[in-house]
Design goal:
With 96 residues, the chain is α+β, with helices and mostly antiparallel strands. The chain is 32% helix and 27% strand. The protein has one domain.
């Protein structure tokens, strides 16, 4: 399922990448809490990496979003989300 041509390009890439075992469009209720508020991720994928399965969140699939064009709060939420996801990965929360 996809909402735009750009999302279709993501899906096509996911389909062709043999390391990606499964992917999904995230439901509207799924969110990552950050110190600046909730952040909704577009997609998630389960990928084989170094003989392990890892869960990754795709933060943004919009083609025309440049960091400079984001509102400061949106940019800060993305930065917080990246840090939180990295911490989860380091704590093995995302390793299956």
């Amino acid at each position: 399922m996809y909402d735009s041509d750009n999302e279709l390009n993501f899906v096509d890439h996911f389909e062709k990448n043999k390391s990606i075992k499964v992917y999904t469009k995230m439901p509207g209720w799924f969110k990552i809490n950050t110190p600046l508020g909730e952040y909704r991720t577009d997609r998630a994928l389960l990928m084989e990496k170094d003989c392990d399965l890892k869960l990754y969140f795709v933060l943004e699939t919009k083609v025309n979003v440049a960091v400079e064009a984001l509102r400061p709060t949106a940019h800060a939420k993305i930065k917080c989300g990246k840090v939180i996801l990295k911490l989860w990965e380091m704590m093995s929360i995302l390793t299956l």
